[in-house]
Design brief:
Layout lengths: L3 E4 L4 E4 L9 E4 L4 E6 L4 E5 L6 E3 L14 E6 L4 E3 L12 E6 L3 E8 L2 E8 L6 E10 L5 E14 L1 H4 L3 H4 L5 E4 L2 E4 L9 E7 L5 E5 H5 L9 H5 L12 E11 L4 E12 L6 E3 L8 E2 L2 H9 L3 H19 L2 E4 L3 H21 L14 E2 H7 L8 H12 L11 E2 L17 H16 L8 E4 L2 E7 H14 L43 E2 H20 L3 H21 L9 E2 L5 E2 L9 E2 L1 H8 L8 H13 L8 E2 L25 E2 L3 H10 L3 H11 L8 H4 L7 E4 L10 E4 L4 H13 L2 E4 L2 E4 L9 E8 L2 E8 L8 E6 L2 E3 L3 E2 L7 E8 L1
Parallel strand pairs: 38-42
Antiparallel strand pairs: 1-2, 2-9, 3-4, 4-5, 6-13, 7-8, 7-13, 9-10, 10-11, 11-12, 12-19, 13-18, 14-15, 15-16, 16-19, 17-18, 20-21, 22-37, 23-24, 25-26, 27-28, 28-29, 30-31, 32-33, 33-34, 35-36, 36-41, 37-38, 39-40, 39-42
Bound molecules: alpha-D-glucopyranose (2 copies).
The site of one alpha-D-glucopyranose (GLC) has 6 residues, from loops.
Length: 819
């Protein structure tokens, strides 16, 4: 069944009941201040780094799930009726409920006994805060006297320490309260120059900042004592758990409506201007509130909040105008035109750090992940993609290998994870090539970029790419295939790990550096991105590089042909003993998806029928109604020589789960073969909008991709997990827009090369590209799957199917007839 519906005109998903099969969330913020916001107002926010600068606390894996957020409690003073207008945390009975998740904002609206509540939450452009505009409307015939209690729980900044180091933390919490503003200033007395402010634009009747006082020691968020009492206690936290709660008394005549603007902000002061009044013996320091005052002044009226929201709407309208699609298939159109791009922005911003499955205290920005996330984002804001590429490249080592992750705050490589994932270097070429194809900006190649964040050994970005290119060539194994290192794209194929110790990290442990284990996937990635490296050399007059690079690519393809083909599909790898992985000789894990998708994407086996055979085998052995599983048969037991892939119960994650990220590789590969119907089928199977009415099984949000859907060996086949932060977002955007709908940026322009189901009669796409707009109308009345018969550009026939770069700020009309 469905728990809501898409409102495409508003670009919103409308959730119509609060008890969704899992919290269905949204992301607020698009630059540096972010909030996670669930359909019952759960979640938390942070500035730039979800671990280091967390403003509000969140308890993961809690019971019930999703407790903690920015809550408002309402109390009717007539009868003492108390409720949560966002349903949680009290699970209050509501006469009406609706949550609209939109582009960077969410709105919860509900009603109980004639009192209507609405909360619009967003992060305004350019400011480091969340704004929550709360409106109460009296829909009854009688006057109402309502108490509003706000509630947030502060995090003591470092979210990891906050959840573990109680012997210290219970003694350090500090706040200040002035009027309607509550300031959280823990650790400001020492090395922090920042504090948080939680304020409302209305005089308050009272406040609380001490959690125990507000809730009562043995009460949960669902039974706050102060709310039941109808009166704040004006508690000032000293240690323990600082919170922020305002109490506002509202008198509403019949039909009357009042709005309040709550702001939760992050404020910073220069070191020498930290204090309004420094601490003196016997009195605590008073923080300098200048930045807070400026922020609160900005959002001091409901009109100002509305204006900021309108600006945010305009921002998104403009961003999403860069790629739009109109088609009979509304599910595809809304995903490609709205939600997929929106998710790409979120994955670009978050990498894999903060979601309802990633705690925000673990992982930083991934080298390979961020390079792939660029794909679906670069057309939206190319300048930010450019900056990201340079940040990522700066964490590369002089030999071309790379830190697997880096910290968003410091932009430094993460020593805990280290390097040795031998696919990493290649994704940099991939990211840069995508950037150049989108923008035509070759100047990025001349940027001076440090190696290992060390300015002393900086070199051009091109020099980085060259190191990347030769890394797998110089680090090849006995079959001339790239050594896998700790793992390749599949983090769980740990062929040098040999771990027997419980809890040992599969990714960072190498008990047996074989120097033998090889990856056919890395070879295929090399064959796919290598030609782009060659093109880049040619286009920047580095012709002396070309011959050697072409030879390296040819050799690599040769190695795949000789040692990477298993008869009916591509092998996956050779293990530390030189044994095949992903072969019919294996008992389990006979066939893997990744090497098959990527080899065909790279064009290997296209001429001699092996490509088609490989994809047919993928269909025969790996397909399911919910997508293509990663491998078959699932590993039944732990294999020390394979590592984490065999650690998962069958059907989950890399052990034969539907690991959605690699499904679009098969989609793209199918378009290489011109099989549009099958390509589209593989697209729709993992696309959430097509599974909206199956939400009880799928459980995750119907508007975003999930990293994994349980595979056919799992008990709950079809159940999704790990929504939002996944490379699936970027790759499906590429597969649907560039390879199915076939509007593909290439070095010299926009290539038009659709590959669609024969039943799709046509569609239109608008694409902003290098300073001009292309309106592309595709006519497939011929009912073919691939092939362009004619292209008309601005009324004139075009030779071929490459739209030139105009850069003239104009709109160009393109009519494409397939056949
Ligand atoms: C996770 C990682 C990604 C990896 C994938 C497959 O999504 O973020 O880097 O490629 O798992 O293991
Ligand atoms: C686990 C997950 C994988 C992820 C990796 C790194 O291995 O299965 O998907 O990429 O952890 O965090």
């Amino acid at each position: 069944m469905q728990y809501g519906y898409f409102d495409d005109d508003a670009r919103e998903y409308v959730i119509t009941r609060p008890d969704t099969p899992y919290p269905w969330i949204n992301y607020l913020g698009c630059n540096d201040f972010y909030g996670l916001f669930s359909n019952t107002s759960g979640g938390y926010c942070f500035y730039r780094d979800a671990r280091m600068l967390r403003l509000t606390r969140y308890r993961y894996n809690n019971v019930p799930t999703d407790v903690g957020g920015r809550y408002f409690y309402l109390r009717d003073s007539k009868d003492g009726d108390v409720w949560s207008p966002s349903w949680m945390p009290m699970k209050s009975k509501l006469d009406r409920y609706e949550c609209r998740h939109g582009m960077g904002y969410s709105r919860i609206a509900s009603a109980r006994n004639g009192l209507c509540f609405s909360q619009t939450s967003f992060v305004p452009l350019g400011d480091k805060c969340e704004v929550h505009k709360v409106t109460l409307t009296n829909e009854s015939k009688a006057e109402k006297n309502i108490d509003i209690f706000s509630f947030i729980e502060f995090c003591l900044w470092n979210a990891n320490d906050d959840m573990t180091n109680f012997q210290r933390n219970f003694s350090i919490g500090e706040v200040e309260v002035h009027g309607s503003s509550i300031y959280h200033k823990t650790e400001y007395r020492e090395r922090r120059n920042h504090y948080a402010v939680w304020a409302v634009n209305e005089p308050v009747a009272g406040f609380d900042t001490d959690r125990q006082t507000f809730l009562g020691l043995y009460n949960g968020f669902d039974s706050p004592q102060v709310v039941f009492d109808g009166k704040s206690k004006n508690s000032v936290a000293s240690g323990w758990a600082p919170i922020g709660s305002h109490h506002i008394k509202v008198k509403l005549k019949a039909g009357e409506s009042k709005a309040y603007v709550f702001v939760l902000g992050f404020c910073e002061n220069p070191e020498d201007q930290k204090w309004e009044k420094p601490a003196a013996p016997g009195s605590a320091g008073v923080i300098n509130k200048k930045p807070a005052n400026a922020l609160l002044e900005k959002y001091s009226t409901a009109e100002a909040a509305d204006k900021a929201l309108a600006a945010l709407n305009e921002y998104w309208k403009n961003l999403l105008s860069k790629f739009t699609v109109d088609a009979e298939d509304k599910k595809m159109a809304r995903m490609a035109g709205i939600w997929n791009q929106y998710q790409c922005m979120v994955t670009f911003n978050m990498s894999r750090s903060a979601s309802y499955f990633e705690s925000g205290i673990g992982r930083g920005m991934g080298f390979r992940d961020s390079n792939q996330d660029l794909l679906g984002f670069v057309h939206l804001i190319p300048e930010r993609a450019r900056e990201r590429i340079l940040d990522i490249a700066a964490t590369q080592f002089p030999d071309g290998s790379a830190y697997h992750q880096y910290q968003p705050l410091t932009k430094r490589g993460n020593n805990d994870i280290g390097s040795g994932f031998n696919d990493d270097p290649l994704w940099l070429i991939f990211g840069v090539a995508s950037y150049i194809k989108e923008t035509g900006d070759y100047s990025i190649l001349d940027e001076k970029v440090p190696f290992d964040n060390n300015e002393a050994i900086a070199d051009t970005l091109f020099a980085h790419l060259k190191k990347s290119f030769y890394y797998p060539v110089l680090n090849a194994g006995p079959h001339g295939l790239p050594l896998i290192g700790r793992a390749d794209w599949n983090d769980c194929l740990n062929l040098n790990c040999f771990s027997k110790t419980p809890g040992e990290s599969f990714q960072t442990t190498a008990n047996y550096e074989s120097g033998v284990a090889e990856s056919i996937l890395i070879a295929a990635i090399f064959a796919f991105v290598g030609p782009d490296f060659v093109e880049i050399c040619k286009r920047t007059n580095r012709n002396e590089e070309v011959a050697a690079a072409e030879k390296a690519i040819a050799n690599m393809i040769d190695a795949v042909n000789k040692h990477g083909w298993d008869g009916d599909w591509f092998l996956r790898a050779y293990d530390a003993h030189g044994k095949k992985i992903g072969s019919k000789e294996c008992e389990d894990g006979k066939i893997y998806i990744e090497s098959n998708g990527f080899s065909v994407m790279a064009g290997i086996g296209l001429e001699d029928g092996r490509a088609a055979k490989a994809l047919d085998s993928v269909k025969e052995h790996l397909d399911s109604p919910y997508g293509i599983v990663l491998l078959q048969p699932a590993y039944k037991d732990y294999h020390i020589e394979l590592g984490e892939v065999s650690s998962y119960p069958p059907g989950y994650k890399e052990n034969a789960g539907i690991f959605c990220h690699n499904n679009p590789w098969v989609t793209i590969a199918e378009t290489k073969l011109g099989r549009g119907t099958r390509a589209f089928e593989t697209y729709t199977k993992i696309c959430p909008a097509y599974r909206e009415d199956d939400s009880d099984l799928r459980r995750m949000e119907p508007y975003v991709y999930a990293q994994m859907v349980a595979g056919k060996d799992a008990v709950n086949h079809g159940e999704a997990k790990n929504s939002w932060l996944t490379g699936t977002a970027a790759w499906t955007f590429v597969s649907i827009t560039q390879y199915i709908l076939g509007v593909r940026p290439v070095f010299d322009g926009l290539l038009i090369d659709p590959c669609i189901p024969s039943s799709m009669k046509g569609y239109s796409v608008t694409r902003h590209f290098r300073g001009a707009d292309y309106h592309v109308k595709v006519d497939n009345s011929a009912g073919v799957e691939k092939g362009v018969k004619s292209v008309t550009l601005d009324g004139k026939p075009l030779d071929g199917n490459l739209l030139p770069v105009f850069g003239d700020g104009k709109v160009h009309q393109v009519v494409v007839v397939m056949g």
